[in-house]
C-alpha cells in the first residue's frame, strides 16, 4: 500500500541564508537517505530557508546554491523541495513562530537545524518531540575560533581598568604605593592579555549596560542561593533523606562563551545543582532534588542571565540584543 502524500514522513531542515547552510543541508540529505530503509517508502525532504526581507542578492545566491545542492539527491529515495519564509525582523521569537506555522500538522519525522541557530530549540522540541529534532554538527572554522584577535585601545583599556580596580579592591584602596604597583601590574596584565581576552571589541555603552544589569542580578542570585541552601538543609536533616539525584542535558538559549560561563557558574553556585559539562548551548547538569531541576536548570536563572547579556524582559528568554 502506498502512502498518501499528506501522510508520508517529512525530513525537514531549517537554515538561514549564510555560509553554514549548505553544509547543514548536505548533512541532512545524507541522514535522510540513510533513514529511508528504516522509514520505508518515499521520503519528502523539505528545506525551509528563513531569511530577512532585506537580505537582497546575498540571500538569493545562497538559495540558488541550496537548490543546486539538493538537485543531485532527487530520485526515487527522496522527493525534495525548497521553501522560503521572509520576515521583517531576525529575532529568534519571530523566526521560531514562522517555522512552527510552516510545520503545522505535517508529519515531521526528523527536524534538523543549524548548530548556531537562532531558533528556540526548546519550543521546537515541544512541538515535534525531543527525539525528532537534531542539531547539525558545526563546521570547524579556525577564523572564528582563533585565539589571537587584532588589538585595539578599547581592549587594552578595558583589561587595564578591570585589572587595576580588582587590584585596588583586594588591597583595600589604601593609596600610596598601592596606586603605583597596581598601575604597573595592570599595565603588564593588559599588555599580555588584550589580544586574547575578548572575542569582540568592547564598547562603553554595551559594557556599561551589562555591568549595571549584572549588579542588579547579584542580589537575586544571592537570594536564589539562600533559598537553595535552606531547601538542601531540609533534605539533609529530613529522616527519610528525600533526594532524587539525576543527570540531565538541557538546551539553553545562550549565544556566547561569557554568557554560558555566567549561567553555568550561577547554576553551580546554587546548592543542589552542578554543571558538569557545557557543549555549545547544551548544559549537562547534575541535580540533587526535583525542585532544584525545575527552579535552577531551566528557570529563573537562565532568564536573568539572558537579561543581563541581552536586555529585554526577564520573562522573555528571546529578548533583544544590546546594540
Short description:
The protein is of the alpha/beta class and 323 residues long.
Structural description of this entry:
It is a single chain. The protein has 323 residues and is an alpha/beta fold. Helices cover 50% and strands 17% of the residues. The protein folds into 3 domains: 132 residues, Rossmann fold; 41 residues; 107 residues, no CATH class. Strands 3-2-1-4-5 form a 5-stranded parallel beta sheet, with helices on both faces. Helix 2 links the parallel strand 2 and strand 3.
Characteristics:
alpha/beta, Rossmann fold, 3 domains, 17% strand, globular, disordered N terminus
Please tell me how large the radius of gyration is. 24 Å
Please give the CATH architecture of the largest domain.
3-Layer(aba) Sandwich
- Compute the number of structural domains: 3
**Largest sheet: spatial strand order:** 3-2-1-4-5
- Would you tell me the overall average pLDDT? 77
Poorly predicted runs are: 1-6, 140-147, 314-319
Please give the largest β-sheet.
5 strands, parallel
Element pattern in H and E: EHEHEHEHEHHHHEHEEHH
At the first level of CATH, the class of the largest domain is: Alpha Beta
Distance between the termini: 56 Å
Number of strands: 8
CATH topology term of the largest domain? Rossmann fold
Amino acid at each position: 500500500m502506498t502512502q498518501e502524500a499528506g501522510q508520508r514522513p517529512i525530513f525537514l531542515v531549517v537554515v538561514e541564508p549564510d555560509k553554514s547552510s549548505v553544509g547543514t543541508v548536505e548533512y541532512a540529505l545524507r541522514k535522510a537517505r540513510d533513514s529511508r530503509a528504516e522509514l520505508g517508502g518515499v521520503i519528502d525532504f523539505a528545506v525551509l530557508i528563513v531569511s530577512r526581507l532585506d537580505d537582497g542578492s546575498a540571500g538569493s545566491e545562497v538559495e540558488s546554491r541550496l537548490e543546486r545542492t539538493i538537485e543531485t539527491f532527487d530520485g526515487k529515495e527522496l522527493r525534495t523541495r525548497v521553501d522560503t519564509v521572509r520576515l521583517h525582523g531576525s529575532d529568534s521569537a519571530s523566526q521560531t513562530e514562522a517555522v512552527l506555522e510552516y510545520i503545522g500538522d505535517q508529519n515531521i519525522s526528523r527536524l534538523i537545524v543549524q548548530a548556531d541557530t537562532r531558533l528556540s530549540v526548546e519550543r521546537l522540541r515541544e512541538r515535534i518531540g525531543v527525539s525528532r529534532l537534531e542539531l547539525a554538527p558545526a563546521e570547524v572554522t579556525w577564523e572564528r575560533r582563533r585565539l589571537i584577535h587584532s588589538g585595539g585601545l578599547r581592549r587594552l583599556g578595558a583589561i587595564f581598568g578591570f585589572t587595576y580596580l580588582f587590584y585596588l579592591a583586594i588591597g583595600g584602596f589604601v593609596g600610596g604605593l598601592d596606586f603605583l604597583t597596581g598601575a604597573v601590574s595592570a599595565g603588564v596584565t593588559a599588555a599580555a592579555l588584550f589580544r586574547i581576552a575578548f572575542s569582540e571589541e568592547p564598547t562603553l555603552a554595551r559594557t556599561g549596560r551589562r555591568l549595571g544589569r549584572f549588579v542588579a542580578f547579584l542580589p537575586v542570585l544571592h537570594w536564589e542561593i539562600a533559598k537553595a541552601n535552606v531547601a538542601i538543609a531540609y533534605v539533609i536533616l529530613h529522616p527519610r533523606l528525600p533526594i532524587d539525584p539525576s543527570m540531565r542535558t538541557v538546551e539553553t538559549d545562550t549565544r556566547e562563551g561569557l554568557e554560558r560561563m555566567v549561567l553555568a557558574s550561577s547554576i553551580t553556585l546554587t546548592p543542589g545543582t552542578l554543571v558538569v559539562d557545557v557543549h555549545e548551548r547544551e548544559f549537562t547538569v547534575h541535580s540533587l532534588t526535583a525542585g532544584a531541576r525545575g527552579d535552577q536548570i531551566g528557570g529563573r536563572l537562565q532568564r536573568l542571565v539572558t537579561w543581563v547579556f541581552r536586555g529585554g524582559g526577564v520573562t522573555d528568554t528571546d529578548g533583544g540584543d544590546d546594540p
